[in-house]
Fold this sequence. Notes:
Blueprint: H1 4-33, H2 37-63, H3 83-110, H4 114-144, H5 148-158
Helix pairs in contact: 1-2, 1-3, 2-5, 3-4
The protein binds hydroxy diiron-OXO moiety.
InterPro entries: Ferritin, Ferritin-like, Ferritin-like_diiron, Ferritin-like_SF, Ferritin_DPS_dom, Ferritin_prok
Domain Ferritin-like diiron: 1-145
Subcellular location: Cytoplasm
Amino acid sequence: MLGEKMQDALNKQLNNEIYSAYLYMSMSAYSTFIGLKGFANWFMVQYQEEMTHAMKFYDYINDQGGQVRLMALAQPMTEFESPLDMFEKTLEHEKFITKCINELVDLAISEKDHATNIFLQWFVTEQIEEEGNDNDIIAKLKLIGDNGNGLLMLDKELATRVFTPPPTSGN
Ligand code: OFO
């Protein structure tokens, strides 16, 4: 059973996760436009991952007898200065999501909602990986600098990323 406050906050995070998917789909489209198909693949896999995150919130709200309420999506950015700019914006966004997850945990604790607290722990761990992946790619892009060959090599590496669906339950 979800309290009204917790339900509203989980619905807001459902929207945040769908927005994340939308943002990465936009980055994938931009990558294709500038000829970086590997980057496009990486962001499209990220889009798929974010939709599974959204579905975890969707299923959890339903499983707890709550009401899913979908909201409007903000327009994502469609232009970027460079691949580095895209990943810096990705990291910035993931830091925002980490903050949102931490605030949800704080709320679950203050509401004494143990089930939601346990559900959220998967996301606490996931955010470490999300930020770590972005930091790794940013470090590589900084090393590459203006080197076109380096960029094409990284593009090849990012082309190998494959979507692996996470477990469907909250843990
Ligand atoms: Fe759902 O982790 Fe990124 O946003």
